[in-house]
Amino acid sequence: MKRAALQLYRLAVLALIAWLIRDLALRQRIQGDTPVKVDEVTKFFTNAAALRPDDSERDGLFVLDRDGRELGYVVRTQPRCRDIIGYCGVTDTLIALDPDWTILGLKVRASEDTRTHVGDVVMDRKFLKKWNGMKWDSAADLDLKKAGIEGVSGATMTSMGIARAVKARLKMSKDEIAARPPLHFGWRDWGMCAVLATAGLMAFGKPAWRHRWKRPYQFALILYVGFISGDLLAQSLLAGWAKSGIPWTTAPGLVLLTAASFLIPWATRMPLYCHHVCPHGAAQELLGRVAPARWHVKLPAALSRGLEYLPAALLLAVLLVVMLVIPLDLAGFEAFDAYLIRSAGFATIAVAIVGLVVSLFVPQAYCRFGCPTGALLNFIRTRGPTDHFTRRDAAALAFVALAAVLNWKFLPLNQWLMGLQ
Known about the structure:
The protein is of the alpha+beta class. The protein is built from 18 helices and five strands. It folds into two domains: 39-178, no CATH class; 187-420, no CATH class. Helix 13 crosses helix 16. The longest helix is centred in the first third of the chain and has 30 residues, at 2-31. The radius of gyration is 27 Å and the shape is elongated. The chain starts with a helix and ends with a helix.
Protein backbone atom coordinates (compact mmCIF):
# COMPACT_ATOMS: atom_id res chain seq x y z
CA MET A 1 0.00 0.00 0.00
CA LYS A 2 2.86 2.40 0.78
CA ARG A 3 4.48 1.77 -2.60
CA ALA A 4 1.15 2.26 -4.39
CA ALA A 5 0.55 5.50 -2.49
CA LEU A 6 4.06 6.70 -3.40
CA GLN A 7 3.49 5.99 -7.09
CA LEU A 8 0.15 7.77 -7.02
CA TYR A 9 1.87 10.69 -5.30
CA ARG A 10 4.46 10.94 -8.09
CA LEU A 11 1.81 10.78 -10.78
CA ALA A 12 -0.22 13.42 -8.93
CA VAL A 13 2.84 15.71 -8.73
CA LEU A 14 3.27 15.69 -12.52
CA ALA A 15 -0.44 16.08 -13.14
CA LEU A 16 -0.71 19.02 -10.71
CA ILE A 17 2.27 20.87 -12.19
CA ALA A 18 0.88 20.34 -15.70
CA TRP A 19 -2.52 21.66 -14.54
CA LEU A 20 -0.94 24.74 -12.93
CA ILE A 21 0.97 25.50 -16.14
CA ARG A 22 -2.18 24.98 -18.20
CA ASP A 23 -4.31 27.14 -15.92
CA LEU A 24 -1.75 29.95 -15.96
CA ALA A 25 -1.36 29.85 -19.75
CA LEU A 26 -5.12 29.86 -20.17
CA ARG A 27 -5.55 32.91 -17.92
CA GLN A 28 -2.68 34.70 -19.63
CA ARG A 29 -4.21 34.06 -23.04
CA ILE A 30 -7.72 35.09 -22.04
CA GLN A 31 -7.03 37.78 -19.46
CA GLY A 32 -3.75 39.30 -20.63
CA ASP A 33 -2.33 41.96 -18.34
CA THR A 34 -5.74 43.53 -17.56
CA PRO A 35 -7.94 40.71 -16.26
CA VAL A 36 -11.71 41.01 -16.18
CA LYS A 37 -13.00 41.37 -12.63
CA VAL A 38 -16.32 40.25 -11.22
CA ASP A 39 -17.57 43.77 -10.59
CA GLU A 40 -17.24 44.50 -14.32
CA VAL A 41 -19.90 41.91 -15.21
CA THR A 42 -22.46 42.67 -12.49
CA LYS A 43 -24.12 45.11 -14.90
CA PHE A 44 -25.24 42.05 -16.88
CA PHE A 45 -25.24 39.38 -14.14
CA THR A 46 -26.35 40.78 -10.78
CA ASN A 47 -25.60 37.52 -8.92
CA ALA A 48 -22.08 37.11 -10.35
CA ALA A 49 -19.58 35.89 -7.77
CA ALA A 50 -16.72 34.35 -9.77
CA LEU A 51 -15.24 33.96 -13.25
CA ARG A 52 -13.90 30.71 -14.65
CA PRO A 53 -11.65 30.61 -17.75
CA ASP A 54 -12.95 28.57 -20.67
CA ASP A 55 -10.36 26.31 -22.30
CA SER A 56 -12.33 25.97 -25.55
CA GLU A 57 -11.68 27.96 -28.71
CA ARG A 58 -14.04 30.68 -27.45
CA ASP A 59 -11.32 31.86 -25.01
CA GLY A 60 -13.73 33.64 -22.71
CA LEU A 61 -14.92 33.42 -19.10
CA PHE A 62 -17.89 31.64 -17.59
CA VAL A 63 -19.76 33.80 -15.08
CA LEU A 64 -20.69 31.87 -11.92
CA ASP A 65 -22.88 32.59 -8.92
CA ARG A 66 -21.93 31.79 -5.31
CA ASP A 67 -23.02 28.16 -5.76
CA GLY A 68 -20.90 27.69 -8.88
CA ARG A 69 -23.86 27.73 -11.29
CA GLU A 70 -23.24 29.24 -14.72
CA LEU A 71 -25.05 32.53 -15.23
CA GLY A 72 -23.58 33.35 -18.61
CA TYR A 73 -20.38 34.12 -20.47
CA VAL A 74 -18.14 37.10 -21.22
CA VAL A 75 -15.44 37.54 -23.83
CA ARG A 76 -13.04 40.41 -24.62
CA THR A 77 -12.04 41.80 -27.97
CA GLN A 78 -8.48 42.32 -26.73
CA PRO A 79 -5.76 41.20 -26.94
CA ARG A 80 -6.81 39.08 -29.93
CA CYS A 81 -7.94 42.06 -32.03
CA ARG A 82 -4.85 44.21 -31.57
CA ASP A 83 -4.69 44.93 -35.30
CA ILE A 84 -8.14 46.60 -35.42
CA ILE A 85 -7.55 50.27 -34.73
CA GLY A 86 -10.19 52.98 -34.47
CA TYR A 87 -9.08 56.57 -34.78
CA CYS A 88 -5.71 56.33 -33.08
CA GLY A 89 -5.77 53.17 -30.96
CA VAL A 90 -7.46 49.90 -30.06
CA THR A 91 -10.44 49.51 -27.73
CA ASP A 92 -11.07 46.57 -25.40
CA THR A 93 -14.78 45.75 -25.45
CA LEU A 94 -16.47 43.21 -23.17
CA ILE A 95 -19.23 41.11 -24.75
CA ALA A 96 -21.73 39.51 -22.35
CA LEU A 97 -23.85 36.52 -23.37
CA ASP A 98 -26.50 34.43 -21.65
CA PRO A 99 -26.22 30.59 -21.33
CA ASP A 100 -27.86 30.20 -24.78
CA TRP A 101 -25.09 32.32 -26.39
CA THR A 102 -27.35 35.31 -26.92
CA ILE A 103 -25.67 38.70 -26.53
CA LEU A 104 -26.92 40.65 -23.51
CA GLY A 105 -24.81 43.72 -24.14
CA LEU A 106 -21.44 45.34 -24.76
CA LYS A 107 -19.24 47.34 -22.42
CA VAL A 108 -16.12 49.38 -23.21
CA ARG A 109 -13.46 48.29 -20.71
CA ALA A 110 -10.50 50.37 -21.82
CA SER A 111 -9.21 52.16 -24.89
CA GLU A 112 -6.06 53.60 -26.36
CA ASP A 113 -8.17 55.81 -28.60
CA THR A 114 -8.93 59.49 -28.02
CA ARG A 115 -10.78 59.94 -24.74
CA THR A 116 -13.45 62.26 -26.14
CA HIS A 117 -14.22 59.88 -29.03
CA VAL A 118 -14.56 56.92 -26.67
CA GLY A 119 -16.76 59.02 -24.40
CA ASP A 120 -19.06 59.83 -27.33
CA VAL A 121 -19.45 56.12 -28.08
CA VAL A 122 -20.18 55.20 -24.47
CA MET A 123 -22.73 57.99 -24.08
CA ASP A 124 -24.55 57.14 -27.31
CA ARG A 125 -27.93 55.62 -26.41
CA LYS A 126 -28.15 53.11 -29.26
CA PHE A 127 -24.73 52.10 -30.59
CA LEU A 128 -23.61 49.53 -27.99
CA LYS A 129 -27.14 48.06 -27.80
CA LYS A 130 -27.37 47.13 -31.48
CA TRP A 131 -25.92 43.66 -30.80
CA ASN A 132 -28.38 42.87 -28.00
CA GLY A 133 -30.43 39.76 -28.73
CA MET A 134 -28.10 38.42 -31.44
CA LYS A 135 -26.69 34.89 -31.22
CA TRP A 136 -22.90 34.46 -31.17
CA ASP A 137 -22.80 32.93 -34.68
CA SER A 138 -25.16 35.52 -36.15
CA ALA A 139 -23.09 38.39 -34.78
CA ALA A 140 -19.91 36.73 -36.11
CA ASP A 141 -21.36 36.65 -39.64
CA LEU A 142 -23.03 40.05 -39.40
CA ASP A 143 -22.85 42.43 -42.34
CA LEU A 144 -22.37 45.70 -40.46
CA LYS A 145 -23.67 47.87 -43.27
CA LYS A 146 -26.83 45.82 -43.90
CA ALA A 147 -27.47 45.64 -40.15
CA GLY A 148 -27.48 49.43 -40.03
CA ILE A 149 -24.51 49.63 -37.68
CA GLU A 150 -23.03 53.00 -38.49
CA GLY A 151 -20.47 55.10 -36.73
CA VAL A 152 -21.37 57.41 -33.89
CA SER A 153 -21.44 61.02 -35.07
CA GLY A 154 -18.18 62.71 -34.15
CA ALA A 155 -16.51 59.38 -33.33
CA THR A 156 -17.04 57.39 -36.51
CA MET A 157 -13.64 55.71 -36.71
CA THR A 158 -13.56 54.85 -33.01
CA SER A 159 -17.07 53.37 -33.01
CA MET A 160 -16.57 51.40 -36.23
CA GLY A 161 -13.28 50.10 -34.85
CA ILE A 162 -15.28 48.71 -31.90
CA ALA A 163 -17.89 47.23 -34.26
CA ARG A 164 -15.30 45.54 -36.46
CA ALA A 165 -13.45 44.19 -33.40
CA VAL A 166 -16.64 42.70 -31.92
CA LYS A 167 -17.47 40.96 -35.20
CA ALA A 168 -13.89 39.79 -35.73
CA ARG A 169 -13.52 38.47 -32.18
CA LEU A 170 -16.69 36.38 -32.37
CA LYS A 171 -15.83 35.12 -35.85
CA MET A 172 -12.34 34.03 -34.77
CA SER A 173 -13.77 31.64 -32.23
CA LYS A 174 -16.54 30.45 -34.56
CA ASP A 175 -14.05 29.62 -37.30
CA GLU A 176 -11.70 27.88 -34.86
CA ILE A 177 -14.51 25.72 -33.50
CA ALA A 178 -15.58 24.81 -37.04
CA ALA A 179 -11.99 23.98 -37.98
CA ARG A 180 -11.46 21.34 -35.29
CA PRO A 181 -9.57 18.57 -37.13
CA PRO A 182 -10.87 15.00 -37.00
CA LEU A 183 -8.71 12.11 -35.79
CA HIS A 184 -6.14 11.34 -38.46
CA PHE A 185 -3.40 8.70 -38.58
CA GLY A 186 -0.61 9.66 -40.95
CA TRP A 187 2.55 7.79 -41.87
CA ARG A 188 4.42 9.20 -38.87
CA ASP A 189 1.70 7.94 -36.53
CA TRP A 190 1.76 4.43 -38.00
CA GLY A 191 5.55 4.53 -37.92
CA MET A 192 5.52 5.46 -34.24
CA CYS A 193 3.11 2.61 -33.52
CA ALA A 194 5.60 0.26 -35.19
CA VAL A 195 8.45 1.74 -33.13
CA LEU A 196 6.49 1.28 -29.90
CA ALA A 197 5.62 -2.31 -30.76
CA THR A 198 9.25 -3.09 -31.51
CA ALA A 199 10.39 -1.25 -28.38
CA GLY A 200 8.00 -3.43 -26.39
CA LEU A 201 9.63 -6.54 -27.84
CA MET A 202 13.10 -5.18 -27.07
CA ALA A 203 12.05 -4.38 -23.51
CA PHE A 204 10.06 -7.50 -22.64
CA GLY A 205 11.00 -10.09 -25.27
CA LYS A 206 13.27 -13.10 -24.91
CA PRO A 207 16.84 -12.12 -23.92
CA ALA A 208 18.46 -14.03 -26.80
CA TRP A 209 16.27 -12.26 -29.37
CA ARG A 210 16.86 -8.86 -27.79
CA HIS A 211 20.62 -9.36 -27.70
CA ARG A 212 20.71 -10.44 -31.34
CA TRP A 213 18.75 -7.47 -32.71
CA LYS A 214 19.83 -4.72 -30.32
CA ARG A 215 22.49 -3.09 -32.53
CA PRO A 216 20.44 -3.06 -35.77
CA TYR A 217 17.50 -1.72 -33.80
CA GLN A 218 19.59 1.13 -32.35
CA PHE A 219 20.78 2.14 -35.82
CA ALA A 220 17.16 2.06 -37.02
CA LEU A 221 16.12 4.30 -34.10
CA ILE A 222 18.76 6.90 -34.94
CA LEU A 223 17.80 6.90 -38.61
CA TYR A 224 14.01 6.79 -38.37
CA VAL A 225 13.05 8.35 -35.03
CA GLY A 226 15.93 10.82 -35.04
CA PHE A 227 16.41 11.98 -38.62
CA ILE A 228 13.22 10.99 -40.48
CA SER A 229 10.21 11.40 -38.19
CA GLY A 230 11.80 13.61 -35.50
CA ASP A 231 9.13 12.54 -32.99
CA LEU A 232 11.09 12.76 -29.76
CA LEU A 233 10.07 13.66 -26.24
CA ALA A 234 11.51 16.96 -25.04
CA GLN A 235 10.81 19.69 -22.52
CA SER A 236 9.72 22.04 -25.31
CA LEU A 237 7.10 19.50 -26.40
CA LEU A 238 5.82 18.71 -22.89
CA ALA A 239 5.69 22.38 -21.89
CA GLY A 240 3.86 23.27 -25.08
CA TRP A 241 1.27 20.57 -24.49
CA ALA A 242 0.83 21.61 -20.87
CA LYS A 243 0.13 25.19 -21.98
CA SER A 244 -1.93 24.62 -25.11
CA GLY A 245 -3.42 21.14 -24.82
CA ILE A 246 -2.64 17.70 -26.19
CA PRO A 247 -2.99 17.18 -29.99
CA TRP A 248 -5.01 13.98 -29.73
CA THR A 249 -6.39 14.22 -33.26
CA THR A 250 -3.44 15.63 -35.20
CA ALA A 251 -0.52 13.70 -33.70
CA PRO A 252 -1.95 10.50 -32.18
CA GLY A 253 1.30 8.58 -32.62
CA LEU A 254 3.30 11.11 -30.62
CA VAL A 255 0.59 11.22 -27.94
CA LEU A 256 0.70 7.43 -27.70
CA LEU A 257 4.50 7.53 -27.40
CA THR A 258 4.28 10.08 -24.58
CA ALA A 259 1.66 8.10 -22.70
CA ALA A 260 3.67 4.90 -23.00
CA SER A 261 6.89 6.65 -21.96
CA PHE A 262 5.32 7.76 -18.67
CA LEU A 263 2.93 4.91 -17.86
CA ILE A 264 5.11 1.89 -18.67
CA PRO A 265 7.96 2.82 -16.30
CA TRP A 266 5.36 3.91 -13.75
CA ALA A 267 3.70 0.50 -13.86
CA THR A 268 6.55 -1.91 -14.69
CA ARG A 269 9.90 -0.28 -13.71
CA MET A 270 11.01 -0.55 -17.36
CA PRO A 271 12.45 2.78 -18.69
CA LEU A 272 10.94 2.18 -22.13
CA TYR A 273 11.69 5.52 -23.79
CA CYS A 274 15.22 6.09 -22.49
CA HIS A 275 16.41 2.54 -23.15
CA HIS A 276 14.44 1.54 -26.22
CA VAL A 277 13.12 4.59 -28.11
CA CYS A 278 15.42 7.60 -27.64
CA PRO A 279 17.85 7.89 -30.61
CA HIS A 280 20.27 10.07 -28.65
CA GLY A 281 20.56 7.42 -25.96
CA ALA A 282 21.15 4.80 -28.65
CA ALA A 283 23.86 6.95 -30.28
CA GLN A 284 25.66 7.38 -26.95
CA GLU A 285 25.60 3.67 -26.25
CA LEU A 286 26.96 2.84 -29.70
CA LEU A 287 29.77 5.40 -29.33
CA GLY A 288 30.58 4.06 -25.87
CA ARG A 289 31.09 0.61 -27.34
CA VAL A 290 33.24 1.90 -30.18
CA ALA A 291 35.59 3.85 -27.90
CA PRO A 292 38.56 1.88 -26.52
CA ALA A 293 38.33 0.97 -22.85
CA ARG A 294 41.43 3.08 -22.11
CA TRP A 295 39.47 6.19 -23.08
CA HIS A 296 36.92 5.69 -20.32
CA VAL A 297 37.24 8.10 -17.41
CA LYS A 298 36.03 7.37 -13.92
CA LEU A 299 34.72 10.57 -12.41
CA PRO A 300 35.43 11.35 -8.75
CA ALA A 301 32.47 10.38 -6.58
CA ALA A 302 31.90 13.95 -5.38
CA LEU A 303 31.88 15.31 -8.96
CA SER A 304 29.54 12.57 -10.12
CA ARG A 305 27.09 13.28 -7.30
CA GLY A 306 27.21 17.00 -8.07
CA LEU A 307 26.57 16.50 -11.78
CA GLU A 308 23.56 14.33 -11.01
CA TYR A 309 21.78 17.47 -9.76
CA LEU A 310 22.11 19.17 -13.16
CA PRO A 311 18.98 17.60 -14.78
CA ALA A 312 16.88 18.70 -11.79
CA ALA A 313 18.32 22.21 -12.09
CA LEU A 314 17.37 22.22 -15.78
CA LEU A 315 13.84 21.14 -14.89
CA LEU A 316 13.64 24.04 -12.47
CA ALA A 317 14.84 26.40 -15.19
CA VAL A 318 12.19 25.03 -17.57
CA LEU A 319 9.47 25.61 -14.98
CA LEU A 320 10.57 29.22 -14.47
CA VAL A 321 10.81 29.90 -18.21
CA VAL A 322 7.33 28.51 -18.84
CA MET A 323 5.52 30.15 -15.94
CA LEU A 324 7.26 33.52 -16.13
CA VAL A 325 6.93 33.59 -19.93
CA ILE A 326 10.65 34.24 -20.32
CA PRO A 327 11.54 34.46 -24.03
CA LEU A 328 13.94 31.51 -24.16
CA ASP A 329 13.71 28.58 -26.56
CA LEU A 330 13.39 25.41 -24.48
CA ALA A 331 14.74 23.36 -27.38
CA GLY A 332 18.17 24.79 -26.57
CA PHE A 333 18.08 23.12 -23.15
CA GLU A 334 18.34 19.64 -24.69
CA ALA A 335 19.96 17.74 -27.53
CA PHE A 336 16.92 16.33 -29.28
CA ASP A 337 16.06 19.04 -31.80
CA ALA A 338 19.57 18.66 -33.22
CA TYR A 339 18.28 15.67 -35.21
CA LEU A 340 15.97 18.03 -37.09
CA ILE A 341 18.98 19.40 -38.92
CA ARG A 342 17.19 21.97 -41.08
CA SER A 343 15.50 23.72 -38.18
CA ALA A 344 17.88 23.01 -35.29
CA GLY A 345 19.34 25.98 -33.44
CA PHE A 346 22.97 26.42 -32.49
CA ALA A 347 22.38 25.74 -28.79
CA THR A 348 20.68 22.37 -29.27
CA ILE A 349 23.31 21.27 -31.83
CA ALA A 350 26.07 22.23 -29.40
CA VAL A 351 24.41 20.30 -26.57
CA ALA A 352 24.03 17.23 -28.80
CA ILE A 353 27.62 17.27 -30.06
CA VAL A 354 29.12 17.85 -26.61
CA GLY A 355 26.98 15.05 -25.19
CA LEU A 356 28.08 12.59 -27.87
CA VAL A 357 31.76 13.49 -27.56
CA VAL A 358 31.73 13.19 -23.78
CA SER A 359 30.01 9.80 -24.06
CA LEU A 360 33.23 8.48 -25.63
CA PHE A 361 34.91 9.00 -22.26
CA VAL A 362 32.02 8.78 -19.79
CA PRO A 363 29.41 6.21 -20.90
CA GLN A 364 25.89 7.66 -21.27
CA ALA A 365 27.14 10.99 -19.90
CA TYR A 366 24.29 13.07 -21.32
CA CYS A 367 21.64 10.63 -20.08
CA ARG A 368 23.12 10.66 -16.59
CA PHE A 369 24.11 14.29 -16.17
CA GLY A 370 22.37 16.44 -18.75
CA CYS A 371 18.89 15.21 -19.71
CA PRO A 372 15.93 16.85 -17.93
CA THR A 373 13.39 14.75 -19.86
CA GLY A 374 15.17 11.59 -18.75
CA ALA A 375 15.13 12.86 -15.16
CA LEU A 376 11.38 13.44 -15.41
CA LEU A 377 10.76 9.92 -16.72
CA ASN A 378 13.08 8.50 -14.07
CA PHE A 379 11.14 10.32 -11.35
CA ILE A 380 7.89 8.61 -12.31
CA ARG A 381 9.47 5.14 -12.58
CA THR A 382 8.66 2.63 -9.85
CA ARG A 383 11.57 0.84 -8.17
CA GLY A 384 9.94 -2.24 -6.75
CA PRO A 385 9.98 -3.49 -3.15
CA THR A 386 12.82 -1.18 -2.07
CA ASP A 387 11.09 1.99 -3.28
CA HIS A 388 10.57 4.69 -0.64
CA PHE A 389 10.09 8.44 -0.24
CA THR A 390 13.40 10.16 -1.05
CA ARG A 391 14.86 13.65 -1.34
CA ARG A 392 13.81 13.62 -4.97
CA ASP A 393 10.16 13.21 -3.93
CA ALA A 394 10.51 16.05 -1.43
CA ALA A 395 12.09 18.23 -4.15
CA ALA A 396 9.12 17.41 -6.42
CA LEU A 397 6.78 18.76 -3.75
CA ALA A 398 8.87 21.94 -3.67
CA PHE A 399 8.41 22.20 -7.45
CA VAL A 400 4.64 21.98 -6.95
CA ALA A 401 4.76 24.72 -4.32
CA LEU A 402 6.79 26.97 -6.63
CA ALA A 403 4.41 26.36 -9.53
CA ALA A 404 1.45 27.16 -7.27
CA VAL A 405 3.01 30.46 -6.16
CA LEU A 406 3.85 31.45 -9.74
CA ASN A 407 0.34 30.54 -10.84
CA TRP A 408 -1.19 32.62 -8.04
CA LYS A 409 1.07 35.63 -8.55
CA PHE A 410 1.36 35.56 -12.32
CA LEU A 411 -0.03 39.05 -12.97
CA PRO A 412 2.19 40.98 -10.53
CA LEU A 413 5.25 39.02 -11.69
CA ASN A 414 4.48 39.57 -15.38
CA GLN A 415 3.88 43.26 -14.85
CA TRP A 416 7.15 43.56 -12.93
CA LEU A 417 9.06 41.72 -15.69
CA MET A 418 7.46 43.92 -18.36
CA GLY A 419 8.60 46.94 -16.36
CA LEU A 420 12.17 45.65 -16.44
CA GLN A 421 11.99 45.22 -20.18
